[in-house]
Every structure is written in structure tokens, then in C-alpha cells.
Amino acid sequence: MHDQPIIIFIALFIFIYGLFSRLSAKWAITGPMAFMSLGILASPFGFGLFDTQPSAASVKLIAEITLIMILFVDATMIKHHVLRHAPNLLPARLLSIGLPLTMLFGVTVAFFMFDDFNIWAIMLMAFILSPTDAALGQAVITSKNVPEEVRQAINVESGINDGIVLPPILCAMAFLAPEITGEHDMQFFEFMMLQLILGPLVGLGVGWIGGRLIERATQKGWMDHIFHQLVSFSLAILAFALAEYLQGNGFISAFCAGLALNIKNPKIQERIYEFGEAEGTLLSLGVFTAFGLVLVPIAYQYWGLWEIIYAVLSLTVIRMLPVAISLIGAKQSKTTVAFIGWFGPRGIASVLYLLLVINTIGFTGNEHFLSIIILTIAMSIIAHGLSAEPLTRLYKKTPSLCPSSLKNK
User: Fold this and answer.
1) What is the CA angle 285-286-291, rounded to 5?
2) Long-range contacts from 222-229, C-beta under 8 angstroms, 24+ separation
């Protein structure tokens, strides 16, 4: 196995980082920052310890398993009453208004900035850069300096938006694929219908049946609590593999399986979440290492002034303006709106969708727009990681930023 040295390297660093993980948090060094930097240092861009490609078997396998688990676990954590009854409907506003507007603004800005891009490449770039990753600014969602409703809004938005943007990404990717030509329009339509209909149907079936069986077996005392954690992984893989076998989309199926699981027992929910969080973190750190090791070295040569400008706009105006629009009437201060708008990091979902695209349509011939995605994610990992701790402290210290309930504590 040619990828063994890379796997050993990543596993060893996860172990070492884990030993000092609490110290790194005090130093405002996030896991994604550390592991991306490690990958860059080990790449040809740094010390040249490894030279691998995005299509390497180990990279593809880690990316696919991580995406399956994240989509499934995030979906299991969606509580519909939270969206309906959250203060001022903040998560619902961000997802139903803010997210579509972010996608639209991303397409519009790129259309005027890069007139030589294929429209489907523009859409794919904007869609991949739309989902957020709250884990990149972990201090924001764990700090008591930030009001609970704000933390909840950022966290819930991050957990759900990666599943919402998946179908548009798949459609744009399919149109961009070189195999799709005008004479295959009908075959393409049939293919997309199978992907977008069979995937959800299979996932909903696997999740609903699996959830009922888990609760039934638990009530009867047949099920050991360890397997509450393990079956979540097996159901995610089952939903993915079965949908792919039936020519549906496995990733959509995994997300829908998590939605349909709907286990009401809080102890089982907690065990599934703990397992998913631990395994998801482990796999994500491997993905961030691969991002620095494989993607940054092949992309940096395509970064110029306009690419940097778009990346900055993607992390600021393209994200923050839609958030501001979505929160009109939500009774939030201007600074709170800006705070929520800024903490929309581009992280693990964007990296995984990027790897999915590269493994499907290839990097050659698509270098320009894919490199902009890589640049934006890299900038976000650093900028949001470094700003999380100081901005959460500022949030509480500045009276105008905080609701009275927080200031009086």
C-alpha cells in the first residue's frame, strides 16, 4: 500500500496533537489550523516529505467516509422544534434566506469578476463556498461570552447547511462534467432523477426502519449501549452503499437517513452524538492534513490579485450581507448581525465537496476555479481560527454588543 507513510504520519500527529490539545486551545491554535499547516510543511510546498495527488486512494477514502459520517450525524442532530421555536427564528432565517442569498451573491460576484469561467464552474464554486463550519471558530460556540441564542444559531446553521447545498452542487457538477453533451440530455435527466429521488427514498427508509428497530431493541433490553454508537456508523454506510447500488446518490441518502432516524430516547441521542463527534473530529483532522498536503501545493500557482479579492469577498460581503438581510426584523443589534455574519467559516464541508468534485471531474482543466475555492478555505481556516477567541472576549466587554441578560451575569 503506497499510502501507508501518509496514514502513519497523520495518525502520529493526531496522537501528538491530542496530548497537547487543551494547551493549543489556550494558544488560539485550532485543530484545522494545526493540521492544515502540518500538511503544507510536509508537502512539496514545504519540506517535500510527501508528494501525492487528490485522487490518491487514501485521500479519496478518508474524504468519502468523513462526508458520509458528517452528513448523517449532522442530520440526526437536527431538532425541528429548535428551528421553529428558536428566539427570533435565527437558525431558520439563516438557512431559508441567508444561505440561498449567499449562493446567489457568490454566483453574481464571480460572474462579473471571471468572465472566462463556465457558468457551471461559477455556480459550483459559489455553492461549495456556501456551507459553514462552526468548528473552525470553536471558541464562538462554546464561550459563555456569547449569548446562547447566537451560539445556537451559528451551530445549527453549520450543522444543516452542508446537507442543503449538496443537491445543487451535484447538479452543477454533473453539467460541468465533460461527458455531458447536448445529445445526452435525456440520459442526463434520467440520471439526475435517479440520483435525487432514489437517494432520499433509500436514506429515509434506512433511517426510519433503523431508528424504530434501535428503540424497540433498547426497550426490550436486547441492545448493549456500545452498539448505540456503532449502529449509527453502520446505518450511515448502509444508506450510502444501498443508494449507490440502486443508482441513487449515496451522500444525499446518508443525510436523509440521519433525518429519518428520529430517535426520541435522549440517552441514545447523546451516545450517537458523542460517537459521531469523536469519529467526525478524527476523520476531519485527517482531511485538513490532506488539504494542506495535497491541495494547497497544486493551487497556489493560480492565485493572483483577483483570486485573492474574490476569496476576501466570499468571507465578508458575500456571506455577511445575506446574513444581514436574513436577520431584518430579528431584533438583533448591528454588531450581533456582523458577528454572526463573520463567523461563517468555510471548512470541512467545503473541503469534502471540493475533493468530491476533483475526483469526479478532475483538477486539470478546472484549475482556476478550484484554486479559488482552496484559497478561500485556507484563508478562512486561519482568519476564523485566530479571530474566534479575541472577538468572543470583545463581545462581552463591549456593552453595546451584549443583551442585558448577558451583561448582568
Assistant:
1) 95
2) 225/267, 225/271, 228/267, 228/268, 228/271, 228/272, 228/275, 229/271, 229/272, 229/274, 229/275
- Rounded to whole angstroms, the Cα distance separating 39 from 288 reads 8
Among 261, 255, 254, 256, smallest CA distance to 211 is for 261
Contacts of 254 (CB under 8 A, 6+ apart): 67, 68, 71, 72, 75, 203, 236, 239, 240
Q: How far is Cα 269 from Cα 261, in angstroms, rounded to an integer? A: 10
| Residue ranges, the chain, pLDDT below 70 | 1-3, 25-26, 55-56, 79-88, 178-189, 397-409
Domains and CATH numbers, the chain: 33-394 (1.20.1530.20)
pLDDT digits (tens, 9 = 90+) for 87-138: 667 888 999 999 999 999 999 999 999 999 999 999 999 999 999 998 888 7
List, as one string, the DSSP characters of 48-62: -S----TT-HHHHHH
3-state secondary structure of 363: coil
**Per-residue cell: 126:** 459559489
